[in-house]
Design goal:
Elements: E1 5-10, H1 13-23, E2 27-28, E3 36-41, E4 44-50, H2 51-58, E5 69-77, H3 81-93, E6 97-104, E7 110-115, E8 120-126
Parallel strand pairs: 1-4, 5-8
Antiparallel strand pairs: 2-3, 3-4, 6-7, 7-8
Length: 138
């Protein structure tokens, strides 16, 4: 098997599409009123499923966490430490919840955490080098 993408079950499709598209730069492939929305970020498929539509499709009911959701995180990378700070501020100014202000970790990564409008955690981090070089032995 190969990883094709990942998804979130969402309550307010329009709000979540606008956040991921307009604030974080994901590309959208469907109209905002679709029950399943495909977004793409750097070649990775990212799906948003309307909760009610997904429940109807699977004939099941699910439990959903309210507030900040600590079940998973989405990790985004920027090339420089300054970009971490700028991306954090932009996201918070445009509807994200600040979870952890940007800080330099003991292992050399500058990182921060925000939450999207429905409480899903998003990390924005950098090793202060281009993405293509970030996994070279530090």
């Amino acid at each position: 098997m190969r990883l094709d993408g990942f998804g979130l079950l969402v309550e307010d499709m329009g709000k979540m599409i606008r956040f991921y598209r307009d604030v974080l730069g994901f590309e959208i492939r469907e109209a905002e009123d679709a029950s399943n929305v495909y977004l793409v970020k750097d070649g990775t498929l990212f799906l948003l499923y309307g909760r009610k539509d997904f429940e109807k499709m699977t004939s099941r009911r699910y439990e959903y966490v309210k507030g900040l959701n600590g079940h998973s995180e989405i990790a985004l990378y920027v090339d420089t430490f300054d970009e971490v700070d700028a991306a954090f501020r932009n996201a918070v100014d445009n509807g994200a919840t600040a979870v952890l202000e940007p800080e330099l970790e003991p292992w050399g990564q500058r990182t921060c955490y925000i939450a999207d409008p429905e409480g899903n955690l998003i990390e924005i981090g950098s090793w202060n080098k281009p993405f293509e070089e970030k996994d070279a032995w530090r």
